[in-house]
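Lab notebook page, bench 4
Experiment: in silico fold of construct C2
Operator: M.H.
Input chain length: 167 residues
Purpose: comparison with the prior construct
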Amino acid sequence: MKKASTHILAAFGFVALFSTLPGTVYAHGSEHRSQAKISDEEHAFGRQGDPKKATRTIAIDMSDDMRFSPAEITVKQGETIRFVVRNKGKMLHEMVIGTMDELNAHAEMMRKHPGMEHDEPYMSHVSAGKKQTLVWQFSNAGEFYFACLIPGHFEAGMVGKIKVTKG
């Protein structure tokens, strides 16, 4: 009887431990993104867009030659873009939108901690042969970038440019 109660307590402890953890943890390579609430967090390069308000869809292809296609896009200030990010390669790639300073800092962090877990609305991690959608509203005019920050990819030139023109 003592052995059975020990197993029950251990199972209860396991369930209790996991019920206190956050609902979902995302890592590089995750194909899923929380669909809960659209974030209102503002960045220099904009904010998460409402898919219902997307004004245009732009397909972005990623490949193992460490390039994006197209590598340059132009959008209007205030425009909400639905990016369909497709990985045509055989390895994991990602598209992360930001300023060049932010991308450089994040790339450095990724080199130091290649397995770090995170999921932001301006990031799309796409496994080989898969695609994912990222919706972004460009609220500020200027020049911004997108890059694959997986160690070695950014350094190999896997970077694109987004020119946001005044509305």
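Observations: The chain has one domain: 26-165. The first strand starts at residue 47 and ends at 48.
Next step: discuss at group meeting.
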